[in-house]
Structures are given as C-alpha cells and as structure tokens.
C-alpha cells in the first residue's frame, strides 16, 4: 500500500489528446505494465484476467474493509493497493500512476465515482476510448448513435399527456435501474415523477430482456470484421466478438407478481422498482445471433462517424435489448465499457469458450493490452 506524493498536473478541458498519451507511453516500461482498477463493479474479473495474462495489478479503494475483502479471492487480489479518502483523489495521483506504468481499466463505478468530466480528464492512460462517453451519457445522443447503427429502439414520448398505455420512465444517468417506474397514464406519471430530475419516457416493450456483451478489437485483422461506412466505406475496422450475455435480477419487480395485480399493490402504496441486484447467464436462440451481430456491427461502424476524426468504440460494450414474441430485437441502451453482467463468466461462457476456453471479458481486455504492447500498438486501444 502506498500513500503517494501528489502530482500537480492540471486537468485539460477536452480530455486527453493523442500526442499527450504518446508522451506518457514513451516513458512507460513496457515490461512492467500494471493493470489498475477501482475495487468494485467487475474488478474481481478484471484483476483475475490481468493476472492470467501475466500483468502486475493495482487495486484502488476507499476504506480498509474493501481491501480486506480481496483476501477472500487470492486469484484476484491486487499486487499493490492505493488507498484513498475519496475516489476523486485519483486525479491528484496521476503522476504516481504513470511512474508505475499503470493502465486504468474503466468500469461503470469508476465513471460514477469520478464524474464524467473528471474521468475524461484523468491524466493516466486508460483502456478504450474515453471520447465515446459524451455520446453514451445522454439518452438523446445515444439514440442518434444507435439508430444510425441500424438498431430498432422503443418509441419515446415527449409529452407525458400522450401516455395511453404502459411506459417506463427513466432518469438521466440512473445507475442500476434505481428510480425507474412504470406508468399507464398521465395520472400514474404525475404520482411517481420527480420533476427536479431529467427523465425520458419510453414505450414499455413486452418481451425478454437480454444484455449482449461484445468486444471490438481494432488491431485484429481476422475473424468477423466490421465493415466501415460513410467516411470509412470499403475499410475493415477490426474484429467483433460476442463474449457472453446475461439477464438481470431486479428488486422488487421480479417478486411483485406474487402479491397480486398492480392495482392491488397500489392500494397498499407499493410501486415496482427496478434495482439490479444480480445477474444470470443466458444464451439466446441461435437464429437470433446473426441479427445480434448486425446490430453490434452497425453500432461500431456508426461510432466511427459520430464526429470528425472519431476513434470509435474500443474494447467491451453491451447492447441492452428486449426480444419480442415476434423475435425482433429492440435496443433500449448501450454501455460502452465492461458491464457487471459479464461477472458470471470469469471462467468463460458458452460463446467465448468456442474460440478459447476460460476467456472472460476482463481477461480479454488484458489480452488486448498484451497483444497491442507486443506489436507496439498501445496508442490504438488507449485514451
């Protein structure tokens, strides 16, 4: 454990440019790269995967209890710890990280703890493209991106007075489903809405929800190659892989039906909530896989067209979908980094095992860094 000297690097307003990233990497000892991760979310999987690929590991945590817990999992226990009073202190430790050749692996909790602007300006090499967060963090921009990629999405209602059937109301940036609610009419909506918050009203699509965990490797020229579009027409952009998929356990909506109808429950002042408490592994009908790949390929190709010079999506991402009884996909969201739904697959999945056994998303990230390091292409997968 270290309590380090703090660097005085001032954050940039625009995130990290390629020249700055290249200057940091020029000072890195490529034989001593360290995978750094905030000890939460999917860190057991990331740390375990990094160790399997031969990397040194660094855990970043607030609170001694958090550190002690990792002793229960020696296969993922970090080689070194950085203990903080507050996660935002990570910004002050940028130089300390760089002196130790650290590459940060982002997950949902990191972005939540740091805030989007701080995360974008963290002066440490980070896996994936941080620029994509701008498009992911706004539901409106996300919709433009996904629809451009050819995904069908649930309809959005602009005016709550137009609600004439079940809708789901989602708050901006709500993590883990907290605060979502279902409304059947305007009265329902008024009763439950927090008008202080920014929200989106989406039609409630009936069907089974599946969370598809993909990985995009821009340095690979084999396998399922993503075909570029528009400014990249005629180019292969890199390899797309399906690593796993999950369904979510949500409290308390999953148990709600046991207590009677929605009307009965409302008489008891009970409302369904959608807080994610766990994840279950799942496979879908094989006949649905070609469409799943088509949507993921379109999403990747569109990510390179989001703005001029966009580096596109890099590494793991998740398409959050509903499959209807007509066997059609509706995509309601994208997560542009590793999701906690990949945690059931530390030992591989029915999909990733076909190509290489015991390949988790966490290990696939480490493998990607290892290969890019060996071929001197780290700049292509970090930001």
Q: What's the structural domain tally?
A: 3
Strand content: 15-25%
State the order of secondary-structure elements, H for helix, E for strand.
Answer: HEHEHEHEHHHHEEEHEEEEHHEHEEHH
- Which descriptor suits the 3D outline? globular
CATH topology of the largest domain: D-amino Acid Aminotransferase, Chain A, domain 1
- Give the name of the CATH superfamily of the largest domain: ATP-grasp fold, B domain
Largest sheet: 6 strands, antiparallel
Helix content bin: 25-40%
CATH architecture descriptor text of the largest domain = 2-Layer Sandwich
Number of helices: 14
Ranges with pLDDT <50 over ≥5 residues?
Answer: 3-13
Structural class: alpha+beta
> What is the mean pLDDT?
92
Structure summary, number of beta strands: 14
Quote the distance from N terminus to C terminus.
Answer: 26 Å
Q: From the alpha-carbon coordinates, what is the Rg to the nearest angstrom?
A: 21 Å
Query: What is the CATH domain class of the largest domain?
Result: Alpha Beta
């Amino acid at each position: 454990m270290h309590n380090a000297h703090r660097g005085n690097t001032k954050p940039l307003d625009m995130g990290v440019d390629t020249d700055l990233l290249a200057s940091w990497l020029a000072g890195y000892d490529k034989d001593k790269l360290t995978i750094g991760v905030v000890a939460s979310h999917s860190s057991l999987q990331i740390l375990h995967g990094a160790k399997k690929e031969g990397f040194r590991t660094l855990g970043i945590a607030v609170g001694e209890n958090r550190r002690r817990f990792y002793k229960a999992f020696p296969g993922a226990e970090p080689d070194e710890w950085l203990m903080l009073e507050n996660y935002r202190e990570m910004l002050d430790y940028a130089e300390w990280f760089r002196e130790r050749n650290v590459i940060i692996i982002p997950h949902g909790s990191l972005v939540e703890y740091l805030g989007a602007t701080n995360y974008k300006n963290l002066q440490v090499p980070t896996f994936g493209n941080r620029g994509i967060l701008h498009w992911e963090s706004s539901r409106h921009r996300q919709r433009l991106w996904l629809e451009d990629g050819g995904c069908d999405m649930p309809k959005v209602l602009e005016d709550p007075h137009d609600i004439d059937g079940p809708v789901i109301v989602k708050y901006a940036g709500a993590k883990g489903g907290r605060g979502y609610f279902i409304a059947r009419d305007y009265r329902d909506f008024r009763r439950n809405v927090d008008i202080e918050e920014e929200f989106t009203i989406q039609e409630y699509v009936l069907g089974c929800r599946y969370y598809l965990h993909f990985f995009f490797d821009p340095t690979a020229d084999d396998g399922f190659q993503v075909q570029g579009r528009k400014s990249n027409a005629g180019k292969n952009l890199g390899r797309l892989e399906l690593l796993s998929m999950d369904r979510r356990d949500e409290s308390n909506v999953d148990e709600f039906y046991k207590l009677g109808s929605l009307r009965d429950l409302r008489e008891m002042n009970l409302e369904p909530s959608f807080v994610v408490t766990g994840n279950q592994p799942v496979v879908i009908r094989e006949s649905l896989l070609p469409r799943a790949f088509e949507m993921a390929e379109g999403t990747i190709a569109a990510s390179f067209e989001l703005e001029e010079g966009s580096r596109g999506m890099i590494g793991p991402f998740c398409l959050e979908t509903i499959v209807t009884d007509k066997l059609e996909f509706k995509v309601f969201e994208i997560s542009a980094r590793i999701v906690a739904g990949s945690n059931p697959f530390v030992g591989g999945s029915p999909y990733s095992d076909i190509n290489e056994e015991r390949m988790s998303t966490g290990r696939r990230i480490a493998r990607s860094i290892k290969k890019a390091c060996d071929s001197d292409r780290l700049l292509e997968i970090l930001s």
